[in-house]
Amino acid sequence: MPRKHFHRYLPTPEAILAKRWCAPFRPWLGHPSLWHLNRRSVPGAAAIGMFCGLIPGPFQMVGALLLAVPLRKNIPLALAVTFYTNPFTIVPLYLLAYGYGRLFVGDGEVPHHLVPDGWDFSALWHWALGLGKPLAVGLVALALTLALVGYIAAALAWRLHVVRAWRRRAAGRRAGRTL
Questions:
Q1: Neighbours of 97 (CB within 10 A)
Q2: What is the DSSP code string of the chain?
Q3: pTM for the whole structure
Q4: What pLDDT, in 10s, does the model give residues 14-23?
Q5: With 80 as the cut, is the pLDDT of residue 167 above it?
Q6: d(CA 49, CA 53)
Q7: 98 in Cβ contact with 125 (< 8 Å)
Q8: What distance in Å separates the CA atoms of residue 33 and residue 68, rounded to the nearest whole number?
Q9: Cα 70 from chain centroid?
Q10: What pLDDT, in 10s, does the model give residues 91-116?
Q11: Is the pLDDT of residue 31 over 90?
């Protein structure tokens, strides 16, 4: 991954840890692994963000933070990856999770309202509760699947970037010797 590109947009750990609200959490948030981009932290943070992105409501980032800290993965990246769920993608993702859950649970009947009646929080909450067990099982299964896919994709992207950099350096060395 192009670290210089990401460092331009990520906050520095010092800037975050200097905030007053952060004072009680400094012992946990001060670990360097939580802020560095490397081949171990990036795929793990991507997996955490993909998993926590399906947590309902505004608790996605809290879940990502609570998983990233003890697992020592990059906090800003884990938080940023949760943004794949938004008001435009959440309903299709929940429908996909419902179908995925029906594969595991085997619930034969399809509810009449596969689309929520309204778009406010209350209507979405009642719609999600009406889908029941297949949705609950499907959300966990889809979250685990997306986490696995996110981990593999980030690890492969990191590896591809490293191989390209090696080849560029080797080509530069070869070109320098022939001159």
A1: 25
A2: --HHHHHHHSPPHHHHHTSGGGGGGHHHHT-GGGT---TTHHHHHHHHHHHHTTSSGGGHHHHHHHHHHHHT--HHHHHHHGGG--TTTHHHHHHHHHHHHHHHH---PPPS-SS-S-SSHHHHHHHHHHHHHHHHHHHHHHHHHHHHHHHHHHHHHHHHHHHHHHHHHHHHHHHHHH-
A3: 0.75
A4: 666 666 766 6
A5: yes
A6: 6
A7: no
A8: 10
A9: 16
A10: 899 889 988 998 988 765 665 555 56
A11: no
Structure tokens at 6: 């990401």
Tell me the two tokens of residue 177. Answer: 């010797």
CA 59 to chain centre: 13
Q: What is the pLDDT averaged over residues 66-78?
A: 91
Phi, psi dihedral angles at 111 (to 5 degrees): -65, 155
> Do 135 and 92 meet the contact criterion of CB atoms below 8 Å apart?
no
How remote is the C-alpha of 100 from its chain's centroid? Answer: 19
d(Cα 37, Cα 9) in Å, to the nearest integer? 13
12 vs 119: CA distance, rounded Å: 37
What six digits make up the tokens of 178?
Answer: 């022939």
**Length of the chain, in residues:** 179
Greater pLDDT, 34 or 81: 81
